[in-house]
Amino acid sequence: MRSIFESIKEYDVSASHHRIGLIGADIADSLSPLLHETEALDLRMRDHSYETIDITADRRGADAAPALIRTAVAQGFTGFNVTHPCKQTVMAGLDHIDAHALRIGAVNTVTVRDGQLTGHNTDESGFRAALSMAMGSDELGRVVLFGAGGAGSAVAHALANAGAIRLTIVDVDASRATALADRIAATGTEAVGTAVDAAADHVRRADGVVNATPIGMNGHSGTPFELDLLEPRHWVADIVYRPMSTEMLTRATTLGCRTVGGTQMLVEQAADSFALLTDVEPDRARMRRHLAQTLATRAQRVGPCS
User: Are the C-beta atoms of 159 and 147 separated by less than 8 Å?
Assistant: First the structure.
């Protein structure tokens, strides 16, 4: 099988040149390249590209991320976004991690300056912005969060920073959920970790439910919990955006729940990453409009968005 770097051309990197890579698994259908490249064109940044570096192309695992990112820098890449399942493993290959990302324990953006690789996290700010747009000044109350991985950690910190009264973190690895809950509790927000088989009672008592796992994503069908537990009083958020409306979000919408979709977080974290990677502030409203147009076009072409 061909290496994922066989087709990479050598680049003479200059201060105005941006060659961004997205590192992760099964990312051929990611909307991030489109979001970044379209905004760069609108900003007349003509020397800008955004490419996927899929670890599944040659059957690599998440632990390959540190070596892959170093190889990519040598090949001319000037910055990176990092997605599932590499947001934590990639940290071992970096020279620096900013304080915000270090607290979260996960990186989704890597800048390259003078040969030094620095990790950042825009998932937290992206989710918090999306949550604010959907919820306004309403209280979040008691929240159940599914997922304690890299994305889950960012979302947990966002929920704490947004004022959640109590956070219950659910993960297939109960020890990982407890470890994240302990870190959140140290910031002053009440938090506990629990196993999946104990989640139902917590959902019944919760005001909001958030999915920060790959469950529901294309290729990972299903729901993080039994949807019969949902009631109209719940607010429901999902960071998955492929498909645009997961089974969980579809049920929540049918019930009349307030919802936060993955596309909202996608744009907000992408905008924050764009600014870090290029030192240019993007037009967030324009990025939201373009994503909406793209999703509408795809829906007309192939039916329900995937």
Answer: no
